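User: Thanks for the earlier help. One more: Flagellar protein FliO/FliZ. Can you show the sequence and predicted structure together?

Assistant: Of course, both are below.
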Amino acid sequence: MIIMDYLWETFKITFYLFLVIGFILAIYYVVKNKFNLTNSRKMEVIDTMRLANGETIYLIKVFDEIVMLGGSKEELNYLKSWPLAEINLEAEKSKKSSAKKNTFKDKFKNILAKNNNSNSSDQDE
């Protein structure tokens, strides 16, 4: 009789353990699918470039703006931003599909060249 009580108690503990684990997994699944931040339509990582010492530069499209961020393992810093109207990403995408793949270096040079052209025209006035 005592052995039956131990078996019954062990069965109940095991059942409740599986029930709690199942509940936790169900909550994880719902939260993961409901709050999925990687598939945002308002924010898109255009390109990244790794630098020395684990540092990285990111070009990110956020709403109607291109933002350049510099990041390391410890922090992420805002570097510069440009209005989306100044940069024609659709032309670059069509070039990329028809020609060789554009690198971060090429995109970065194009953005800086456009920025320098706009600054030099501002200084001429």
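User: Great, one quick takeaway?

Assistant: The helical segments are 2-34, 89-98, 104-124.
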